[in-house]
Amino acid sequence: MATTRLSSLLGQRRNGQGRPLHWTDVAAYVYLALGVVLMFGPVLWLVMSSFKTESALLEFPPSALPFAQVEVTVPGQPQKLPLFRVTLPDGTVRQLAQVRRIGLVAQMVDPANPSQQFRVAIDKREPVRHIALATENYSEPLQRFAFLRFLSNSVFVTLVATLITLLINSMAAYGLAVYQFPGKQVATIAVIGTLMIPMTIILVPVYLVVTELGLTNSLWAVILPGAATPTGVFLLRQYMLTLPKDLIEAARMDKASEWQIYWRIVMPLTLPALAVLAIFSIMWRWNEFLWPLAVLTKTEVYTLQIALNAFQGELQTQWHYLLAMTVVTLIPVALVFVFLQRFITTGIGSTGMK
Amino acid sequence: MSDIPSATRPQRGLANGALAWLGGVAVLPVGGALRLLDPPMRGMQRVIGARRMAYVFLLPNFVFFGLFVFLPIGINVVFSLTGGTALFPSQRPYVGAEQFTYLFDCGSYLDPASCREDHFWRGVANTVKFIVFQVTAMVLFSLVTALVLNKKIRGRGFFRAVYFFPVLLSPVVVALIWKWILQRDGLLNAAITTLGGQKILFFVDPSWAMFWAVFVSVWAHMGFYTLILLAGLQAIPADLYEAAEMDATPRWRVLIRITLPLLWPNMIVVIVLALIKGAQTFDEVFVLTGGGPGTATLMVVQYIYETAFSSQVQNFGLAAAASVVLGVVLFVLTLLQFAAARRKEV
Hints:
The structure holds 2 protein chains of 2 kinds.
Chain A: H1 2-10, H2 23-49, H3 54-57, E1 67-69, E2 71-72, E3 81-87, E4 93-102, E5 105-110, E6 113-121, E7 125-127, E8 129-131, H4 136-144, H5 147-178, H6 184-195, H7 203-212, H8 220-223, H9 230-241, H10 245-253, H11 258-269, H12 271-287, H13 290-295, H14 304-314, H15 319-351
Antiparallel strand pairs in A: 1-8, 2-3, 3-4, 3-7, 4-5, 5-6
Helix pairs in contact in A: 4-15, 5-9, 5-12, 6-9, 10-11, 12-15, 14-15
Chain B: H1 13-36, H2 38-48, H3 53-80, H4 98-103, H5 118-149, H6 156-164, H7 171-182, H8 187-194, H9 206-234, H10 238-246, H11 251-279, H12 283-289, H13 300-310, H14 316-345
């Protein structure tokens, strides 16, 4: 079915010119198919792995789907016992539960008839498995680590920082777009100048400023330094420049104050550009790493990204929690992408900003 | 500023609705605060006049710029010219260019082991190596992908999205996704052993570690550069292609004579942007390899971070000096970017 569809797809003649399919078209589809596997595959693998139990994750080679061993309750046994398919010396195959394992020999019991015990070499048994989603990978970190704390820290930083960015950037953009004043040139150049100063090269002095302000180990230390973005100012200013000047003049005639013109007339008209900036800001803040890593040293103020990084260092063996937490970190981004994909890609294509 | 849109047009359909909604949600709480600010602002306007209100509008943003960008540049220089371990500049003794001479004290710049501050030079060497491979691979793959996506293929939007979505993932998530695949008992080693090979400890072998650092970084950011090139490809006038088709020009000739020359300005932008980002490489590689094995994937930014924040003696002066060096490099690259952007406009 898939192959017939593919061949009809590939054999299709295009442009209405009846030109046959060129080999480059075939190569293009092959390239794209490989691309889908290489780009989506790793994320899919992460999500599937995150639903595996701790023991299933240790399996090698790994299975594709999240399997878990069947466990049964056997009368007379305090705990649930793992179920195995056992080949007995006489060649019969039976399902037995394992009571304990001593070296290379397992002591097993028939769940239907608990009095009957077997001693089985461990290479003669195979686990009985069923597909099971290990949702405890997701629920347990909530209790065992301050996972909700990290999540709420990240949400707080993202939302508050985005609101501040929208407000101060739009005010500056309005000032630069609407007025003629001495020093306008200098202000514009100063904004361009800040475009050239990434956080990576002023890490130490910003740390000093934040310390002087008494903000170390508070979320405000993460929020404030990046709140004024040069890209945001430019984006909004360019958009505001396209608004008709008459509108503002008319409002002035009607005795509207400058502040009212800003927030009642210009801001609503700038909504599309504000939304672009909001999306970018949310992305920047949710994913921010180097600066929070430098300035947040107490676990209570960790954002998700910093917590994940700390966990992957500490809990080398606890991949089952780490994978689940990674998936949670990825969800907001995935949602934004699914709903606004087309919009973001066209936006980046035409602005060249990220 | 050619990389800023002349106007960002509202999109159609779903995106438009979602946008309006998102914008509405974002502006609603701010809207309330803005209304409250009206009386004081009106008073201000009465005092200073309508025209000078421009300064009031610029003030908050510039206070932030001043505090967190302009002031730090100055402090950075102060830090790099003073010594000791204190954070506050007044407690730091002036040492002149000592931090820089220490940083640059090398027997041979080609051999990090001959330097007094060998970690910095290993960082420089690794970053240069990383940039050479990463930028080459990035430009190559994003060019091929953009050329493929520019063809009249079915499901173009879908494929574009496929290549683009890793751009939005956080560096930590990207690194963990690949770390999980590349670990000793991971998916890749499973594939290798199924095919009859031996397990490879990717993060123990310096060359493999560097390879995967480059690979993962290309995987994560390729979509961004692809989009820039795609926009460039779509801006090439269609009549050029039509004319070529009339003349029955072979496809490879069209590619070499029309497409690539006309795309060249965008290629320069992509190359320079990739260089600027590459020089600042830190997060993905840091989470993926931790700079290891040993110092095989230690980058300059990681050196700065560790010197200032995570080593036992916090050497702010040395870190600041290294930042100044990095800053100069980035400044030169940014000038290149502006030059490239200007050429694009002409």
